[in-house]
Amino acid sequence: MAKSPAWQRKEGKSEAGGLNEAGRRSYNRANPGKPGLKAPQPEGGSRRDSFCARMSGMKKKLTSAKTANDPNSRINKSLRAWKC
Fold first, then answer.
1. Residue 10 has what DSSP assignment?
2. Which three-class secondary structure state does DSSP give residue 83?
């Protein structure tokens, strides 16, 4: 049985949220026609502003109260990594 790509498994995910370098490499290899994934941009800029606006809206509308308040949920870890 074939293994799924690293970005879909635990070894491709960062403990702090999002993907680690191995996960980004795996995703880019599996999706050659798409633009490559980039690391978080916590220092600021238009990518960060766009990400924070999108993910904050997703957190409010698409998660349960339990997930939204859980500091270890993937969405909260990602928002922290991006310093939103």
1. G
2. coil
